[in-house]
Design brief:
- It is a single chain.
- This protein is an alpha/beta fold.
- It has 2 domains: 134 residues, 3-Layer(aba) Sandwich (Rossmann fold); 60 residues, Arc Repressor Mutant, subunit A, CATH 1.10.10.
- It is 47% helix and 13% strand.
- It has a 5-stranded parallel beta sheet, with helices on both faces.
- The N and C termini lie far apart (35 Å).
- The model has no long low-confidence stretch (mean pLDDT 86).
Length: 219
């Protein structure tokens, strides 16, 4: 799955027993090692101290406020964090909303240790990961044919269309080539899930023009 030797994680959940359970799962990982460097019940765990530099953020969608943590997710995505939403809420609409905002993936807590660990390693490596509940949500998505892309996904996509290489995109946007690939993979997955696969750059250009994301003059 990944060539990294160590992955750092921050946990955001308002249930201490959940935090303890997830931390024990990660503690058992060896190759690669997964380390919980910060945890807490609020966004501060991922924005202050060692959590601010963690490779992956595990975010509960309900944090005791009675309101889904979409604002917290947007805050993290805007800062280019790799966020796994890990929640009791088995809702196709919630899963699709989180993906639209820019979450790396969406897991229900019923999916347990194996999927959370694999998703964490995938997030650290920038490799897409679709657990069963999310696959079901994507399969039942009856929204309009045009996929809903997050603002950052569109930005990376358009920059790539106008650049000669992914390295140039990375330099222009101040991100890594791995992150560029992650965003482009997400875009391809979203197009595939609405029945419009785009496996090449030319395919993506054509679909972006069709969907009004870019004009021929801009190319």
């Amino acid at each position: 799955m990944t060539s990294v030797r160590s992955v750092s994680v921050v946990l955001i959940d308002d249930h201490p027993v959940v935090l303890a359970g997830i931390e024990s799962w990660y503690a058992a990982s060896v190759d690669p090692e997964v380390r919980v460097v910060a945890k807490g019940a609020t966004l501060a765990a991922a924005t202050n101290g060692p959590g601010a530099e963690a490779d992956v953020v595990i975010l509960d969608l309900q944090l005791g406020t009675g309101v889904s943590a979409y604002a917290e997710l947007r805050h993290l995505v805007a800062r280019q964090r790799q966020v796994i939403v890990y929640t009791m809420q088995d809702s196709a609409q919630a899963a699709l909303t989180c993906l639209d905002i820019g979450a790396f993936t969406y897991l229900t807590k019923a999916e347990g240790e194996e999927h959370l660990l694999q998703a964490t390693l995938a997030a650290a490596a920038g490799v897409p990961y679709t657990p069963p509940a999310l696959a079901g949500a994507l399969g039942s998505d009856t929204r309009r044919e045009r996929p809903r892309l997050a603002a950052r996904e569109i930005e990376v996509l358009l920059e790539w269309f106008q650049s000669e290489s992914k390295a140039m995109v990375a330099e222009s946007l101040g991100i890594s080539v791995r992150t560029v690939n992650t965003y482009l993979d997400r875009v391809r997955i979203k197009y595939a899930n609405v029945g419009r696969p785009a496996t090449t750059k030319a395919n993506l250009v054509a679909k972006a023009v069709q969907d009004g994301l870019i004009s021929l003059e801009e190319l």
